[in-house]
Amino acid sequence: MMIEIDVNSPTWKTVSGKARAVIDEAQLRLERRGYDATETEFERGRIETARAILKLADPPQVKPAIPQPPPY
Q1: How many domains does the chain have?
Q2: pTM of the model
Q3: In the prediction, which pLDDT does 1 show?
Q4: What would the DSSP string read from start to end of 4-49?
């Protein structure tokens, strides 16, 4: 069961704004020199997690229940 997110709600606007801020901050940190591999991987993980949160508002991709014949 999928719960639909109201993208116009104040809660979602706050959550999505924070997720975008996390992405922006992590990208700025990655642009700085001097990070080792562990720190770089940590920042990339923050970006990936924030993007996954933003993706929650995307409508689900529904596959047809009956296989479609290949196009001619």
Answers
A1: 1
A2: 0.74
A3: 53
A4: PP-TTSHHHHHHHHHHHHHHHHHHHHHHSS---HHHHHHHHHHHHH
